[in-house]
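ping. complex inputs:
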Amino acid sequence: MPEPFRLSQRVLDIRPSGIRKFFELGLSMTDPIDLSIGQAHFDVSDEVKAAAITAINEGRNRYTVTQGIPPLREALLARYAKRFGDVSDYDVMVTSGVSGGLMLSFMALLNPGDEILVPDPYFVMYKHLATMVGAKAVTYDIYPEFRVDAAKIRSKITERTRLIVVNSPSNPTGVALTEAEARALAKLADETGVPLISDEIYEDFIFEQRHYSPREFTQNCIVLSGASKSLGMPGWRIGWMLAPKSLSERMYTVQQFSFVCAPAPLQWAVLKGLDQDFSAHRQEYQAKRDMVYEGVREHYRTVKPEGAFYMFPYLPQGADSARFMEACIKQQLLVVPGSACSDKGTNFRLCFAATDEKLKRGVDILNTVAKSL
Ligand code: PMP
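pong. complex structure:
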């Protein structure tokens, strides 16, 4: 890099996402079976697309208030009131995706030297965002069954711990909190005074049980969610966050001086999509989960996902992760090495948000690879 561009320590301390690398590789291949990137395989509904076009044509193209358009915030707050009871001291703010909400909450709550607890395996952004604000992500291990154990988290709390991040249903494991686990996390937050950040972006993608949020059982919890996955619009950058009013007001200021607001016409379109019935997609994804799980379980030890659209199988006994990845790529199959979302390299992530045809081909390749290693 030419002088005088000297990189900040902040940037030197973070690594590019190991997942994006595979996304880019997929773009350069002719007909890959790309089970690497985590986005729903369906498009935005026609009704919501039309609402976005109408909003643009009606001139809703100016800045919105930083916290988001009032009707969208009101609709979301009403939804949370139904689920969590009295939320009168809480506020919903519209963010630039859940990523934006994570950034704002970390900036508002963490000082250099602070620690946050994140699950291992984790959604890769938690660690890097913590680094960017000078904090440190400490992991709590959820192997081998990927269940969240509040007692294990408690043992990792130090005087520096400021936040506990939970993600259910989980990226990359697909495991979802049970009611008892959500209650135990809530109790942990109440007893230790360390608040939770609950990333619920996959809340609609839940198969047998209902979605449980720790926020049902404690107020010491910020809830993050968004439209990227459920409404099939990861490129639209709309998310939201339920947080105490006094904290939200601080985060408005951070958003005002950074992202300003989430995309204006798209906030109006999301409002239109909020009440869409998700049950057909849910059934479709459950069927995909079943197909892939049944397809690979003979050759791979796998925890059956309860939600989201990921599976995190263990590599075949004794297999080397790099050799496994190479063998998959040779056959045009893209999955993500576990080391991109974990401190361990014993697993790989596959995303089953793909057509049944691609999933079938992917399963066949995985079984061929397992036999060849
Ligand atoms: N949280 C989790 C667990 C995710 O998997 C993702 C997207 N991969 C995000 C947050 C970010 O989503 P977005 O910024 O698109 O809302």
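Residues 60-273 form a domain with the Aspartate Aminotransferase; domain 2 fold (CATH 3.40.640.10).
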